[in-house]
Amino acid sequence: MSYADFYSSFLQHPLLLWLAAIVGLAIALSRPRVSRDVRRFAVALSVLSILDAWLSANHVLGIGPLSGPIATLLPLAFVLIGDFRFFLFVELAQPDGTLFITNTNVFKAVLWTLLVPASAQLLTSMSGSDNPRVLFLIYEALFVMLLMAFSLYYVPTRTKAERWVRRVTGFVLLYYGLWAAADAIILATRADTGFLLRVVPNVFYYGGLAPLIVWTAPQADPV
Questions:
Q1: How far apart are CA 145 and CA 152, in angstroms?
Q2: How far apart are CA 171 and CA 139, in angstroms?
Q3: 222 lies in some domain
Q4: Cα–Cα–Cα angle for 1, 195, 24, rounded to 5 degrees
Q5: Which DSSP state fits 218?
Q6: Closest alpha carbon to 117 in 74, 77, 57, 171
Q7: How far lies 34's CA from each of 48, 97, 179, in Å?
Q8: Domain that holds residue 49
Q9: Tens digit of pLDDT per residue, the chain (223 long)?
Q10: DSSP state of 219
Q11: What pLDDT is attached to residue 221?
């Protein structure tokens, strides 16, 4: 089996990604002193990852291959939700290790979420390419650039829990950078190893964010 075959197989997506999400949740729940809202947020992220890995697979277990508009819209929705969860955390994080939600925070997270996909779609249209991986690479490169600017200019002045947010932002930057590197390798060289590299950020994305948010949170009163 080639790396590309493994990448598109049931073993990688959803089985490996389900495993990553479940292990990540177990690690998140193992921290004894964390606020109740952070713990609930971690559970929600893990459930979302499990649903994402299930419904965005090439062959959806119990349903089969998706077809029609839903085959495009559902994976896109999960991509946007996956980015939204990070931006929502950024806007909610408090210095005391809690998360505080307001309508304004949610609205700001939505705006951040829409910035990259809108820009990526425009640049892809301008490129004239119909290769989906070109769109992937443009999206990932734009997200990396956004996060670098975000970390430099937004996190220090507009967030209330700078150290906590900066650690999580660095982790998101890591998996987006690995995705971009993998897709650049695939497009430039068609090397099969690009798909092997892509598995790493997949595992981080599906299983790493929840425990990282929990274990980098400022210590809170026991729940």
A1: 11
A2: 17
A3: no
A4: 100
A5: P
A6: 77
A7: 21, 7, 31
A8: 8-215
A9: 899 999 999 999 999 999 999 999 999 999 998 999 999 999 999 999 999 999 999 999 999 998 889 999 999 999 999 999 999 999 999 999 999 999 999 999 999 999 999 999 999 999 999 899 999 999 999 999 999 999 999 999 999 999 999 999 999 999 999 999 999 999 999 999 999 999 999 999 999 999 999 999 998 655 5
A10: P
A11: 59
Residue labelled with tokens 């309508």: 103
Q: Which pLDDT score is estimated for 220?
A: 67
Tell me the residue type at 81.
I
- CATH label of the domain that carries residue 174: 1.20.1070
The dihedral sign for the CA sequence 120, 123, 125, 129: negative
Q: How many domains does the chain have?
A: 1
Q: How far apart are CA 99 and CA 34, in angstroms?
A: 11
pTM: 0.95
Determine contact, residues 97/217, Cβ cutoff 8 Å.
yes
Cβ neighbors of 72 (< 8 A, separation 6 or more) are none
The answer as to whether 27 is a domain residue is: yes
Task: At 59, list the tokens.
Answer: 């062959």
Tell me whether residue 57 is in a domain.
yes
CA distance 198 to 214: 25
Residue 97 lies in a domain: yes
Residue written as tokens 């982790």? 171
Q: What CA–CA distances, in Å, run from 80 to 76, 115, 134, 183, 209?
A: 6, 10, 18, 19, 15
Residues paired with residue 2 on neighbouring β-strands, in sequence order: none
Q: What angle do CA 82, 15, 9 make, to 5 degrees?
A: 95
